[in-house]
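Record minuted for everyone:
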Amino acid sequence: MILGNKKYVMSKGLAFYAELESQRLEKELANGWQIEKINWFGFYQLKKIEPEDRQIAIDFYSGEKGDIEEYLSIYEASGWQKITSYRHRYFIFKAEKEHEAVYTDEESFTSRINSERVWFMLNAVVAFFIGLTAMGIMNL
């Protein structure tokens, strides 16, 4: 859906299909739409820009929130430009097409996937107990 200079696109699963979503966002960028933010309902908000032929990388950050600046500076120093983030955990970067990919070895890719899985499981447990508590309160 396009409203003025904004386009809204449903995410197909940032957490589950990061590489496919990267390719999808690259196509949008080539058509002149750059991701601006991600909302809680799973929609990407894109803004109209001049078309760019660049690559997109989506990375999951598993470190402490106080160390985000250092994490971002490492990406910037290696030629990646931050576009946006979601909940200070998912970061979306862009770089020239010929630039080296973020994950070039299986070990670092596996580490990212495992960190992401643990984060999701912890969030699911917290959500479960909040729901359980709310149901208990409603039954009083």
Observations:
- The radius of gyration is 17 Å.
- The CA atoms of residues 58 and 92 lie 5 Å apart.
- The longest strand covers residues 54-60.
